[in-house]
Design a protein that fits this description.
348 residues, alpha+beta, 6-stranded mixed sheet, 11 helices
């Protein structure tokens, strides 16, 4: 460290003492001369710098909307998302699923998030972290033309929540997976179709200083068993914010995050365990060596513009669906949240 505290970004909402703008440099006056500190002043300065090693809480949505991401250009862009993707056998896709952590559905609406329906023309849309009781959802969300809509909210207002919109009416919709503790947080909707199950989920975060890691690991055990039970009946497409970057290639700063939520040994091994149960990370199956492909960027430090992010959002498939996989895409050009949407193309 050479005796100087410094700050760097590259983590999921985490501050690290590593490299960047040093405190001593930031403290210089207009003259460019290094300031002189008394003992007590220096102690307070160093203590303040040391505090930057802890993870700041996720900003409330209101403060985000007042910040950089509210600029006029920071909304969903008008793009052409048509695709000729095919399976390895040459069969063109006929099912498109979009998944997006919206970080508050009401804030997402104000950022033109609904444009994703027009841009993608998806068959199914899954949203996570809606942060809104169903009774308080705006009508524009509850009544999207051409789609059946399903919502599961947390018992705690303004927290968690998932939603599913489908052009094809499912045979059956299930909310949660019969575990009261996790189901009370509104984290999972399952839609059964003729040929497959679709599960959208918002996986618990291990929290600052890993205070909820045990809760996360309990979720892994129960949720993975739930997916296995579904897979025994029909193939499964599972999507959402899984709150883990599986490999070092999946985040910008792996070395600085091995003890932080989303990249702990336990969380990464949990994802490996899921894959070993007969599931596939669709994006890595198609793009095993693709770098700098992220789906989450903290609002702080202009991380999205610098592409200092994490890949936390996935489409995970039953292994027997791989021959029907056409493409798995990260729509990192789309704004509206601290996450971007991900899109799956299948021939079903």
């Amino acid at each position: 460290m050479r005796g100087v505290w410094s700050v760097a970004t590259g983590m999921r909402g985490v501050w690290s003492v590593a490299q960047g703008v040093s405190v001593a440099t930031a403290a210089r006056g207009a003259s460019g001369q290094a300031p002189q500190f008394r003992g007590s002043q220096l102690h307070r300065l160093v203590r303040s710098a040391a505090s930057l090693t802890s993870m700041p809480p996720k900003r409330k949505q209101e403060s985000v909307e007042d910040g950089e991401e509210k600029k006029g250009t920071k909304i969903v862009k008008k793009e052409d998302f048509s695709s000729d993707a095919k399976t390895e056998e040459g069969e063109k896709w006929n099912l498109k699923v979009v998944s997006w952590n919206v970080d508050g559905i009401r804030a997402w609406l104000k950022k033109d998030g609904m444009s994703v329906f027009e841009l993608e023309k998806p068959d199914i849309v899954c949203l996570q972290e809606t942060k809104c009781a169903e009774a308080k959802l705006p009508d524009v969300v509850k009544n999207i033309k051409g789609y059946k809509s399903y919502f599961m909210s947390s018992k705690t207002e303004g927290y968690s929540g998932v939603a599913l919109f489908s052009k094809i009416e499912p045979l059956k919709v299930t909310y949660g997976f019969s575990d009261k503790t996790h189901d009370d947080e509104g984290r999972c909707i399952t839609a059964e179709y003729d040929k497959f199950y679709l599960v959208t989920t918002y996986v618990p975060n291990a929290g600052r200083k890993l205070v909820t890691l045990d809760k996360r690991l309990d979720w892994n055990t129960k949720f993975h068993k739930y997916l296995q039970d579904l897979d025994a009946k029909k193939p499964v497409i599972m999507c959402g914010d899984l709150n883990v970057s599986h490999k070092e290639i999946d985040l910008a700063n792996p070395k600085g995050n091995k003890k932080n939520a989303g990249f702990t040994k336990e969380e990464r091994e949990g994802f490996t365990d899921l894959l070993e149960m007969g599931f596939v990370d669709s994006f890595r199956h198609l793009y095993p060596d693709a770098t700098s492909k992220y789906t989450f960027w903290t609002y702080m430090f202009n991380c999205r513009a610098k592409n200092v992010g994490w890949r936390l959002d996935y489409f995970v498939l039953s292994k027997r669906l791989v021959p029907q996989l056409c493409d798995s895409l990260i729509r990192d050009s789309l704004y509206g949240s601290d996450h971007c949407p991900v899109t799956l193309l299948m021939h079903m």
